[in-house]
Specification:
The chain is mainly alpha-helical. It has 2 domains: 6-92, no CATH class; 114-175. The chain has helices at 6-18, 25-33, 39-49, 53-59, 63-75, 94-131, 135-142, 146-154, 163-175.
Length: 178
């Protein structure tokens, strides 16, 4: 699993919140002004990160939104959106900080998943040695690819199996009797 960059993450968020299939700035600005106000913060951050503030401004009809966009653009000047630990977001209003914290959570999700897989790997290796179960037996019982499971168990390559498969392997090793 790869770390998201800010542009990719915010694009995905905009498409999800708008229930649209394409990233059409005019359509998204219309939705943000009328029926889907939750889009606004992410739309503003997207426009700033991709240097499309003037284009977004041309689609806006509400003066309060135009003023807010200009204010946020000024506050976010020089801000590195791809750095989730950037403290420059502290000067932004709370709802924009909340959106950036969502990005930080998505960015750090990979570390959390890898730490969880590492813990499962340690327990699985311990149980496999203790119970004397071969990797082939595990693969046959769970229907997994032997190459990936061997890399996971023998070489501690935690990227070769998903968190769900790592959990399945550990559960199997807990429940199997020798």
């Amino acid at each position: 699993m790869r770390r998201p960059n800010f542009k990719g993450w915010v694009t995905k968020e905009l498409l999800y919140l708008s229930a649209e299939n394409t990233l059409n700035l005019r359509r998204l600005s219309f939705l943000a002004q009328s029926t889907v106000p939750r889009l606004w913060e992410r739309l503003v951050l997207y426009a700033i990160a991709t240097n499309q503030v003037t284009r977004l401004t041309s689609f806006l009809h509400r003066e309060d939104m135009i003023a807010e966009l200009a204010t946020i653009h000024k506050l976010a000047e020089g801000f590195d959106f791809n750095d989730p630990n950037n403290n420059g977001c502290l000067q932004l209003p709370p709802r924009y900080r909340k959106a950036l914290l969502s990005y930080k959570a998505a960015y750090q999700n990979i570390d959390t998943r890898n730490a969880s897989k590492k813990l499962r790997w340690e327990k699985s290796v311990e149980l496999q040695k203790k119970k004397g179960i071969s990797t082939t037996q595990i693969c046959e019982a769970l229907g997994l690819d032997i190459g990936n499971v061997t890399a996971y168990l023998k070489r501690s390559d935690i990227n070769r199996v998903s968190l769900e498969k790592a959990t399945d392997i550990m559960k199997y090793l807990y429940t199997v009797s020798v």
